[in-house]
Amino acid sequence: MTAQFLRLTAIATLALLASCNSIGRGTRGQTQYLEAFDPSLVPNSALYNQDMDSYWDGDGMAGAASIIIDLSDQKAYFYKGGSLAGVSALSTGDEKHRTPPGNFKINFKNQWHKSNLYGDFVDAYGQVVVANVDVKKDKPPAGTRFEGSKMHHFMRFTDSGIGMHEGFLPGYAASHGCVRMPGKMAAIFFNNVTMGTPVTVRP
User: Fold this and answer.
1) Closest CA to 98 of 77, 78, 122, 69
2) Edge-to-edge strands, sheet with 128-134
3) 156 and 107 in contact (C-beta within 8 Å)?
4) Which residues are registered as beta bridge partners of 163?
């Protein structure tokens, strides 16, 4: 099989999986619905989560931090004192949940943040009973509780809850508004921003 055929097959599989509302009792893992999509749930996920663009040269650089998020090229540019310190690949908001352009500042940080909107209903043992839920629309079955999506190294920059965090990158804008980053880059950005760090989101 050609690489192109494998990639197309994986894309079709991802679309099918993303449309599912339940992955059944006895399953443990991260929901497909959420910002922090678990690539282990997707066959051939290595075809998606390859990151050839991200890098960090900022260790030892001085100067105030700032970030530019470019929606058109799905990358974040980290600056120190006006000099480029690093670049991260991204997956920003999809057509129905756009990441808002504008000028913002980091107003909240939480290394182990979880979503309070999207997640799974799990039983007393942590097994997923219903996946891909939205607490604004879905009711928990009897005996279950809500478990929010992991959004590690969360850096919120809007008043509506949009932020940068670790998450699955399918190679295009696919989130519910937040800015997904590779885990390594999310940790680096998190450790190099402070409250008030400027964030510019460009269309």
Assistant:
1) 69
2) 128-134, 114-122, 145-150
3) yes
4) 156
Q: Which residues of the chain have pLDDT under 50?
A: 1-37, 43, 47
- Work out the number of other CB atoms within 10 angstroms of the CB of residue 165: 27
Pairing of β 163-166 and β 179-181: parallel
Classified by CATH at the fold level, domain 3-202 comes out as L,D-transpeptidase catalytic domain-like (2.40.440)
What are the extents of the domains in the chain? 3-202
Task: Give Cα 5 to chain centroid, integer Å.
Answer: 27
SS3 37: coil
Q: Which helix (H) or strand (E) holds 67?
A: strand 65-70
Q: Phi and psi (nearest 5°) for 142?
A: -55, 135
Compute the Cα dihedral for 176, 179, 183, 186 and give only its sign.
negative
pLDDT at 68: 98
Q: Which residue has the tokens 């937040």?
A: 178
Backbone phi, psi, residue 41, to 5° = -80, -10
Predicted model pTM = 0.75
10 Å CB burial of residue 72 (0-12, 13-18, 19+) is exposed
What's the gap between Cα 36 and its chain centre?
5
**Residue 21 tokens, joined:** 């509302």
- Going by C-alpha positions, the residue among 94, 6, 86, 7 that lies closest to residue 53 is 86
| SS3 state of residue 8 | helix
